[in-house]
Specification:
9 helices; alpha+beta; globular; 2 domains; single chain
């Protein structure tokens, strides 16, 4: 079965025993144990499959870009075949361009697939489709329990992140009063914050940051959830405008178009 951009969809099961054997008696294996050869270290021993790395623990979501008018078709595909459901809908307008997005989630809640389509011919979605030569994954979001440490470590190894307009951080405390995060650290590391704050109750926050393009037009997101299960809706516009500024710097959008808005 092929998904967006002809990506192959694997159905993965774990072998927990047969013929009445106790679960795990024969083995607890998955497709990865069958289809992939273990990587060995310098001493000929299998590499730890769960290295500490920079604290990234899971794939949080996979965001896809599709041609204009195809978002509904693809969201219905995942709904019909896999019983996914729509949990979010966005209609984002930047200064110059726009996008629409539907976020689909599996019945178990562990697989999240936001699907984006452009509102015009010059948005970042349209640019991606041209560079990628079709529909596909725009970015992979990786979860962490310490986004500050993860970002610090990744920067030390040369990972380059998207910048955000300075005024975004000037307005953080006003937009989310009593959020409890260190605004100076958010500003220094360029980490975005979204969610809701509640007086006398636990806040529902989400921290996120995006890398520059890494594999062709594909980039990564680092995300930490603190009680918020959204996708950074409040940050969409700020991120969208920061990417527009990058498009202007690269000549994809012109100053003439910017002045005309």
């Amino acid at each position: 079965i092929k998904g967006i951009g002809d990506s192959l969809i694997y159905f993965v099961d774990r072998w927990q025993g047969k013929d009445g054997a106790a679960a795990g008696a024969i083995g607890n294996i998955s497709i990865y144990d069958v289809d992939f050869v273990p990587v060995l270290d310098a001493h000929g021993q299998p590499v730890n499959p769960n290295p500490a790395g920079h604290g990234l623990t899971e794939i949080d979501h996979l965001t896809h870009n599709v041609f204009r008018g195809r978002m509904k078709e693809w969201s219905e595909f995942y709904e019909r075949f896999f019983n996914f459901r729509e949990v979010r809908y966005f209609d984002i307008e930047g200064k110059l361009t726009g996008l629409k997005s539907k976020a689909m989630t599996s019945p178990c809640g562990k697989i999240r697939i936001p699907i984006n389509e452009s509102s015009d011919d010059k948005s970042q979605i349209a640019e991606y489709l041209a560079l990628y030569h079709g529909e596909g994954i725009q970015h992979v979001a990786l979860g962490t329990t310490d986004i500050y440490g993860s970002v610090e470590g990744m920067k030390r190894t040369g990972v380059v992140f998207q910048d955000t307009i300075e005024t975004y951080f000037d307005l953080v405390d006003k937009r989310l009063p009593n959020h409890g995060e260190k605004t100076d650290e958010l500003r220094r590391l360029r980490i975005l914050i979204d969610g809701a704050t509640h007086l006398g109750a636990d806040n529902e926050l989400l921290l996120q940051i995006f890398t520059k393009e890494v594999i062709g037009p594909i980039f990564f997101e680092i995300i930490q959830r603190k009680g918020n299960e959204g996708f950074g809706e409040g940050n969409f516009k700020a991120l969208f405008e920061s990417i527009e500024l990058d498009q202007i710097r690269r000549g994809v959008l012109t100053d003439t178009e910017a002045k005309a808005v």
